[in-house]
Design goal:
single chain, 327 residues, Ribosomal Protein S5, domain 2, 4-stranded antiparallel β-sheet
Amino acid sequence: MEAIEIRTSARLHLGFYNFLSNGIAYGSIGIAIDRPVIRVVIRKRGEIFINNYTDEYVDDVINQVINIFNISGAEINIYSCIPRHVGLGSTTQLSLSIAYGLSKLYGYNYSIQELALLLKRGYVSGIGITAFEKGGFIVDSGRRLSKKGLLEQPREITDIPRPIYWSKIPSDWRFIVIVPSGIKGLDERDEEYLMKKPKELPKELQYELYNALIMNIIPGISLNEIDLFSKGLNKIQFTTGRYFSKYQGGVFCCRETTEIIRLFMENNVVGVGQSSWGPVAYGVVKGFRRAKRVLDKVLIELKRLGIVPRYSFIAKPRNTGLSIRPL
């Protein structure tokens, strides 16, 4: 095998069902969606060649992978990429795509979990790792804190958050996604500092989050009851937003994201949220036609408000992991 192609796509982080309880922090919920797409082609070469055919800066990701493998030759082609630092999980998906491709092409045969550990993925959440591996709807275990009560980089595979619940997302659900222009979410370095020392919620509020996950979100996914799912999603989203409000200036990261979510709700989208640190906003509905009607109405209102989307699209669920094929 002289060349290999890897494809994967974005994820949405839906928030945290646990912030700190019994030494475990940041239990996460997330889903894989079918766009934007990463497409990477790697070929055997005697020297290092990098071809980035996208508008995204990816040198830092590629250099990290090359240094970890300590290889002297490979041609890495980035044909499409997820926008970076907007809340769609681009760094995890891209770094795992390149690393997994090199591992298969050169016979290292690392597992995805082993690569995640080498790449320092999974510091807070394991959603992106599982989304890469198998897609779908994911609830992860959270992270065990150190004896000092701090979040530290994973040192072993067992330190990486693992999926404790996984399910396919109903195929008729659609995710309306809007990324406002000119705003970036926090990068990994800022996130590491802010997330290092988690704080407990009042027990009553923490119980409400557990209840939202177990009684609303999981049954909503399993029974294809989107309103039940959305009720729990909103509880977790707004609680997560208030928890981090002192870092992002409000429940959501910025005026633009707040307005997008308000417009979703005014158009009867029950389940809404901001993924990660934003600025991406999303709403979940049943059926493409309804999603298209809502998106069209929201875009008209955003234009009136002077808010320019960088991206706006309707995504399907992605219920499978990466695709890999020899060329």
